Amino acid sequence: MTNPGPATLIRRGIAAEWTRTTGRSFLWTVAVPLTFALPLIVTLAIAAVAERLADLPGQSYVATVSTTNSVYWVITLSVAVMMVAAAYAHATQWRGQTSDLNAFLFPRSWTVAVARWIYYGVITAIATVVLLVVVMVTLPLQFPQIYGNVDITDSAGIRFLWTVPCYAFAACGIGVAVGTLIRTPSAAVAVLLFWVYVAEISVNLLPHGSAIQAYAPFLNAVAATGQEVAFLPRFGRNGSLIYFILVAVGFFIVTAVLPILVRRMSGYRRTALAKSSTT
Q1: Residue 156 in domain
Q2: Dist CA 24 CA 27 (whole Å)
Q3: Within a 13 Å sphere around the CA of 174, how many CA atoms are in the beta-carbon half?
């Protein structure tokens, strides 16, 4: 009987993750609802307040919002929630009997990481597309004074529809990589949040910090989507998105694939040496 190949194991891993998370799991009862609820609540609350202020008597000037600044909270909150969920799920597999079961079912353990990246990445990409459509369609209809210029069909809206899902999918790969490197779920979540919301922003305060910050992966990715930010993409918009994807793939390979391959090669070498010493 031959061992299944990597593609088969990845398909099994995706199916196993679907089975594991079906029902009242953390993913569907907490992570996905938060992915939708947080950006919608914040976006609509801010829009409602801004529209209310615009209706006050004596408002001679109303600052309108363009498409490029309409989905900030979708980009900021939705991606972060699902990336953290992916890290938490992957870090959890190293605890207790789950670790032994995974080792038995998936002899090539890196395939589990790939499967989880695909599983969470696809869910996140779909969720962000739905949220982008809802937000960019709802804002100009419900809040025309402030968000009347938002248009899902203009160049900025169309760019959001493909760049944000790409960013979201790649970000889940970073989440899985952190969950591989830091096998305590709470610590993995803390490291990710610190990286995104503290480290990349505050590095600008260091000597020559602006030069270092130019290579911040998440800031480059957000700017690459077309969102209005003070940060200038290091490699241009398309180049910065490619840069983020390469960082995600590279980090994933270094943490989730290479150590396993190195251990396997070392095992083969020890086996070969043992056989040669007995002959």
Answers
A1: yes
A2: 8
A3: 26
What per-residue confidence (pLDDT) applies to 60? 54
- In the chain, the number of structural domains is 1
Residues in contact with 179: Cβ distance below 8 Å, sequence separation at least 6, in sequence order: 86, 87, 88, 89, 90, 91, 92, 185, 188
Show the domain range for 139: 6-278
Residue 160, judged by CB atoms within 10 A of its CB (0-12, 13-18, 19+), counts as buried
Would you state the pLDDT for residue 75?
A: 95
Token code pair at residue 2: 């031959």
- Do the domain assignments include residue 1? no
Rg (CA), the chain: 22
> Where do runs of H (alpha helix) occur along the chain?
6-21, 26, 32-54, 72-73, 79-92, 97-105, 110-142, 144-147, 155-181, 185-194, 200-202, 209-213, 217-224, 236-252, 258-278
Query: What crossing angle do the helices spanning 185-194 and 155-181 adopt, rounded to 10°?
Result: 140
pLDDT at 100: 42
pTM: 0.88
Mean pLDDT by 10 residues, the chain (279 residues): 74 87 88 96 94 73 83 95 94 61 54 92 97 96 92 95 97 94 91 93 86 91 91 86 96 81 56 56
161 touches 129 (CB < 8 A): yes
| 274, two tokens | 């043992």
- Look at residue 216 and tell me if it is in a domain: yes
Residue closest to 121 by CA, chosen among 200, 17, 33, 219: 17
